[in-house]
Amino acid sequence: MELIKSVRHRTRLSELVYLTLNLALPAVLFLLVRAFGGSPVVAIVLLVLSKWRVLAVRPRYWFINLKTNLIDLIVGVSFVYLLVAAKNSDVAQLGLVALYIAWLVYLKPKSRRHFMAMQAGIGQFVGLSALFMFSYQLDVFSVTVLAWIIGYSATRHVIGAYEEEHLEMIGVVWGLIIAELSWLAFHWTLSYPLLSGIAIPQVAAFATVLSFGAYNLYDIAKHGRPNDRRKRLTVVVTGALLLIILIFARWTVTI
Question: Model-level pTM?
Answer without folding.
Answer: 0.88
